Task: structure prediction
Amino acid sequence: MIDFHNHVLPGLDDGSKTMEQTISMLNHAISQGITDVICTVHYQHPKMDGIEINLKIVNDSLQKVQKQIGEKINLHSGAEVFYLPNLLEIRRDPLTVFGHGKYMLIEFQTHQLPPNYDEELYKLVMSGTTPIIAHPERYKPIQDDINIIEKLIHSGCLMQIDAGSLIGHFGTNCKNTVIKLLKRNMVHFMGSDSHNDGKRNFCLESAVNICEKLIGDLTEKLVYDNPQKLLDGENIIPWEVLEEEPKSFIKKLFSR
Ligand SMILES: [Fe+2]
Result:
């Protein structure tokens, strides 16, 4: 399995604090059958204000960790970009993109989506970079209306869910939303979004077990095929979004 989205590199953001913690997290990942970890350091996130980050800093850190952990797991560099209306400018920074400029992982604040964000994302699509929305199930506006995601997929975006959302780490609304997204074929990647060796550690294994019950063999696309294509800079064609299941007569009666 390939874990796409985590904060495992030590001391670069609000993730792992020390090399010791990083190694402990990676050993936990290995025990779950994770062979590759795409490290996604926070980029221009307000809570990282004033901390310098660039590809060299990330690669230097990554190489130190790789040397310590050995060949049991492969690390890849990358970033989780905090949405600001500057995506077209920052895509020139190689840290912000995957697959030679083909993909960018973008997160939003959880309580509201910023004005004109959809137009900015579309401009990015038109420039040749596919936006991948990080953990859409954790955003309140999406929990209220998942059809926002359908529109974003139709305009060329892809979706990455957090494994923890499926396990229930972020509450019932989040879990229900992620289940709806999966059932409607609106998910393309799953990542641990791990931050430490405690409650927010790598957790793909248990999430994959739940996911397989919901979408069967498609699960493999989320944790292997698609992240591999992203690393190789290959096209990822999203599968067709399914219509919302019609409510049963009983459900309709009680939702009035
Ligand atoms: Fe993250």
